[in-house]
Amino acid sequence: MGAYWVVDVRRPGEEQRLDLHVADGRVTEVVDHQEARPGRVIDADGRWLIPGLFDGHVHATQYAIDRSRIGLVGVSSAAEAVEVVAAALDRPGQDGGARRAAARDGVPVVGARFRDGLWPDVPTTRLLDERFGDLPVIMVSGDLHCGWANRAGWSMLGITEPPEGVLREKLWMDALGRIPQPRSGSTDELLDTALREAAGRGLVGLRDFEFADNLSSWERRRAAGGIGIRVQAGIIAEYLAAGNARGLRTGDVLAGTDGLVTMGPLKVLIDGSLNTRTAYCHTPYPDGDHYGELVVDHDSLVAQMQLARQHGLEIAVHAIGDRANTIALDCFEETGIRGRIEHAQLVLPADLPRFAQLGVTASMQPWHAIDDWEIAGHYWGRTAAINFGFASLAAAGATIEFGSDAPVAPLDPWGWIAAAVDREPIIGRPWHAEEQVSVRQAIAWSALGRAEVRAGDPGDFALLDQDPYALSAKELTAIEVHATAVAGRWVHGPDAE
């Protein structure tokens, strides 16, 4: 790793020039700039220094695989989704023909990231059957909580009695895991490419909530020499029961990973999602007398929290609807365990202060406010709860962390930072502007609470070509990252190893 100086840097919003010394993977000094420094010197030429950005919520394997699927972002009806997939199959050249040939050999055609919450028509098995016949076609929703297929696709997923339309939540999640996947080496190559792109956006680490044996996956990736970013590998109860945790506690380093891969939290999913209309809410959805779906009830969640405590694990609870958040907070209060609520998209005002009181981190994904604002207005318009309450939770003293939820949203920290700062330039109209936050807050919540680089910090930082504090939200999405370092090693930029 060695030691070196990065000279002539500025903190965002400041003109003062600084130098920082990096040694043994840490920042050891941050001092006033001077013309000469001993040893190896990297001249930042007045660029802006920020802490490295960390994605608090990723499904890494799904994100890698998603990059090879047919994109359905922005389609406005089931009929249009069908035509987009058909067009991809009919495309001249290798792409369409290869997909058809693979489908005949047992690899389904997969469309990804549809959002049907406001579609005027209904996605049905029959619609896909009529267009694609016995070619297996599977459609995966943008939130991963529902899916849709033709008969050949359902058969490939082991579903012998096909539903008329979409499958949701538990039945779909089980089916999702049975979609044939590329070999692990191919997936790892796709993911390594994606993470190198993310490092080019200032990303230094992520928390992986893939529903898989994440510890083995990340050990394999590090052994193969993939990009060296930090990973907190989450675990689910099924793998904990199978002994895959190996006695590791949250924060423990996995051997042979250069100190970059650590044990993450136990992940528990207790409700659904907004687009799938299964987020569990206090107020009924307007399209029927239902409140969403509670996947894990109060008593079961308490048991999971107690299990996490026994194993020395933090717990991360997926809760999107306001009623699910209330239940999660009740269970945190009952058990006394600390942890995280993943998403916290809809929260009652009375529950806001409980995050700080109970030591529960709100792990939020601001780009969901871009993807879901119209759906939220339609389905959650009558609720008294707060949508995407970044500012409200901050005012109540909560600890907040940002992330993407990739592949549900792009793995691009500057996209979610912009979405938290000002949504109007992105969606074309103001939406809950009272919940927007400053660029400084958004960067800190995207860097594990670090607003700026200081002596003693890990050597995880990025150099920017523009001052982010001086940019509009739209300009933030296109900000240029000159270089990124993780544990003192350059993973992006002219000095990348």
TrEMBL record:
Signal peptide: none annotated. This is Amidohydrolase. It comes from the Bacteria. Residues 40-492 form the Amidohydrolase domain. InterPro entries: Amidohydro_3, Metal-dep_hydrolase_composite, Metal_Hydrolase. SUPFAM superfamilies: Composite domain of metallo-dependent hydrolases, Metallo-dependent hydrolases. Pfam families: Amidohydro_3 (PF07969). One of its GO terms (molecular function) is hydrolase activity, acting on carbon-nitrogen (but not peptide) bonds.
